[in-house]
Amino acid sequence: MTRSPIVDEWVNTMFPSQDIRPEWLSNACYEIERDWKVNNPCDSISEETYLGELENKIVYTNLSDVTARGSRGLPAGITLPSMYTTLDGPIVLELVHMMDVGVSAFVLEKVRLDREQAAYQRLCATEESIAGLPLVAQRDPQSVATPTYPRKCMRYTLSDGRNEIEAVEFRKAFPFLLGETSIGLKMRLENVPIIGGVAFLDPDLVEILGGSVEEQAEWHYTRFRNDLTMRMGEELVLSKKHGIPCRELFASAN
């Protein structure tokens, strides 16, 4: 199908540092037009609505599927420890992993296990309802609270769909929380300082586009557990070396 020049213009403006797969873009445009005709047979779609639907498709899709193989993206060598530069952009990256490095891994692991237990209790309460137990014996699934992770110092892993870069918050914090923020979320970066191969993000200068990707969320959780296991081992070594509990390795960590 022939795409509107407006679409190509929008893509070039939104992704000046990346190349979108032509076949993905054409299929996305086809689906937008098809679905609009089915749901609104008497109306034509406005340019604003069309581009909004296209952006929505992008933020809920893995960038590795959206961007062309061999596409431009993160510059080569930008993650080297010797790299001190600026990521000019604009470039769209997605959040694929996050970890709080300011809290003991033992604290985070305890919360993770408590959250799994809470999820199990909600399932049991739902099963009791399905099983037809007397109301007095049933538990309300909504009454089981989900523990929240403490928040101190977040470290993020961002991807252009092919390559990853580590990032930390600079000047102020993002409204991101472990266990709450959607993995696969897209953000648009520009003029980001790179210090020792790590991106320093100023939330005031980062445009959050939103979105999520389920498969990335699943991979993040596996990665999160593995990271905690590794960190707990490292903390034990330091704890024995300095003769203090692991939690005391982190100032004011609770």
Automatic annotation (TrEMBL):
GO terms for cellular component: nuclear body; RecQ family helicase-topoisomerase III complex. GO terms for biological process: double-strand break repair via homologous recombination; resolution of meiotic recombination intermediates. Pfam families: RMI1_N_C. Residues 75-216 form the RecQ mediated genome instability protein 1 OB-fold domain. InterPro entries: RMI1_N_C_sf (IPR042470), RMI1_OB (IPR013894). It comes from the Eukaryota. Belongs to the RMI1 family. This is RecQ-mediated genome instability protein 1. It comes from Ephemerocybe angulata.
